[in-house]
Structures are given as structure tokens and as C-alpha cells.
Amino acid sequence: MSTFVAVDIQNVFFHAKKLKKRLNFQKLHELFQEEEDLLTCNAYVATSPFTETSYLINTLKGIGFNVIACEQKKERKHLKFNNRSVGITLDVVRNQEHFDKLVVVTMDEGIVDLLDHLRDEGIKVEIWSLTNNETLKDHADEFNLFEQEHYVKR
Predict the structure, then answer these.
(1) What is the CATH number of the domain that holds 106?
(2) Is residue 1 part of a domain?
């Protein structure tokens, strides 16, 4: 079984921060390395000309993630955030003929249409989340919560 892993870095980082926790991305990567026939382990990172992200990107690459940078654009006076779930969706759909299991690390319910599409195509969908999310759970074959061991010890 070939597996495609997609991690929405900012999504889980900021949700963890709200919970006063920090995910250990090294442990996360190790968890997914246990997957049989891992096709890719992608980390989707929002970048901006106004925010320094090179340290984060280099750290994720050093751990072993394939980093996909999603550039944010500035329109007029506001920073326009590219929707990473759209980028993840496009990447997954473009590659869906190469895997039969998708693992997604997110709290973003904006991907449920993608999850339903893949399940209709016979692809197993596994979600990893920080908190119990009934919407994501309803659209996945398997739903997992991170354990204490996946967080940075303070």
C-alpha cells in the first residue's frame, strides 16, 4: 500500500499554540516513516515576504519532510493568505493514481470534499488531529488524535 502524507504546518502549529502545546515535528516524521511504501511526506508551509520562514523550512527539510512552500501575496494594504487546503487538494489529486492511502495532518475542515472524493475512488483516508473533530472524523476511514509523546516536552 503506497502512502501520501500531507501536513498543514501552520494549521496545526497555530491550533497547538492555542492549546498551549507544540507538536514535535521530528516525532511526527518518525511516525509516518513507519508507513509501508511511503510515497511522500509533504509539509505545506505558508511563506511571506514579511515573515522569516527559512529557519522553519530548513528545519523541516533537515528532519526529512518534502517542503512545499505556499507563498502569501500582498494586495493593497492587506496580506492575502493563499488557502493551503486548495494547494494540498491540487497536489493530492494530481498524484492520486500513485497512492492508495492518504494521511493528512490538519484541523482544517475545508478538505472534506477532497476526502470524500478519495474515498469514492477507493483510497483510504487517515486524519491526524490535535482535538476531536467530528466533521473530519465523519469524512475519514481512520481518525487519530496526537498523544502526549507527539508534543514537545516543556
Answers:
(1) 3.40.50.1010
(2) no
Q: Count helices and strands (H / E) in the chain.
A: 6, 8
In total, how many domains does the chain have?
A: 1
What are 1's three cell numbers?
A: 500500500
Which cell numbers in the block locate residue 126? Answer: 487517515
Burial track 16-36 (b if 16+ CB lie within 10 A, e otherwise): beeeebebbbeebbebbeebe
pLDDT digit string, tens, across residues 34-93: 887 999 999 999 887 777 788 999 999 999 999 998 776 655 555 445 567 778 999 999
Summarize pLDDT for 104-150 with one digit per residue, the tens.
999 999 899 999 999 999 999 999 999 999 999 999 999 999 988 88
| Alpha helices in 34-130, H assignment, sequence order | 54-63, 84-95, 112-120
Q: Would you give the end-to-end CA distance of the chain in angstroms? A: 37
> What pLDDT is recorded for position 72?
67
- The rounded Cα 64 to chain-centroid distance in angstroms is 14
Question: What is the DSSP annotation of 6-29?
Answer: EEEHHHHHHHHHHTT--B-HHHHH
